[in-house]
Amino acid sequence: MLILGIDPGSSITAFGIINPKTKESSYGYLKLSSKINMEDKLYKVFLFVKDIIKDNNIDSVAVEGSFYSVNIQSATILSQIRAAVIIAAKDSNIDVYQYQPKEVKQAVCGYGGAKKEQIKFIVEKTLNISLEKEPLDVSDALAIALTHIYTMNF
Asked: How far apart, in whole angstroms, are the C-alpha atoms of residue 123 and residue 131?
């Protein structure tokens, strides 16, 4: 069984894959240029997630849910990126689960107000990996996958 966690973003969309039984993991990200239009970004994210699912025999997808933002344009863009992730998973007949940022922080760190650096630290210790050279989005994606594992008691 493999769980795919996705941290959707308009400049970086990160993923983390975790085997709940062994805690083996893999991760990566897609960097999206600010020079391409939104439609192309959405399509790139869709293809990126489809390829991850196809190449890794994914069982479930966990994605960060919507968050409240003062900037409506940013919230709209992130919602569209999240939709591309969800459609890619559903197109592959994979169940999708959404977790709010506070839920992820609570599940992984025990505190809903944890900072990104705290999440990274706990993820590294839990999975026995180093994410030193990775953007924080990667540890967020792995934290989302861990949240799903903890929530479903895998």
From this structure: 9
Domain ranges of the chain: 3-152
Residue 9 — φ and ψ, nearest 5°? -150, 155
| Residue 134 annotated in active site | no
Q: Which of 32, 52, 61 is nearest to 135 (CA)?
A: 32
Q: Which of 64, 103, 124, 134 is catalytic?
A: 64
| pTM for this prediction | 0.95
3-152 CATH fold: Nucleotidyltransferase; domain 5 (3.30.420)
Q: Which of 7, 124, 132, 140 is catalytic?
A: 7
| Residue 35 to residue 19: CA distance in whole angstroms | 36
Helix (H) or strand (E) holding 130: none
For residue 47, which of 104, 106, 87 has the smallest C-alpha distance? 87
Whether 51 is a known active-site residue: answer no
- The model's pLDDT over 48-95, given as tens digits with 9 standing for 90+, comes to 999 999 999 999 999 998 766 667 888 888 999 999 999 999 999 999
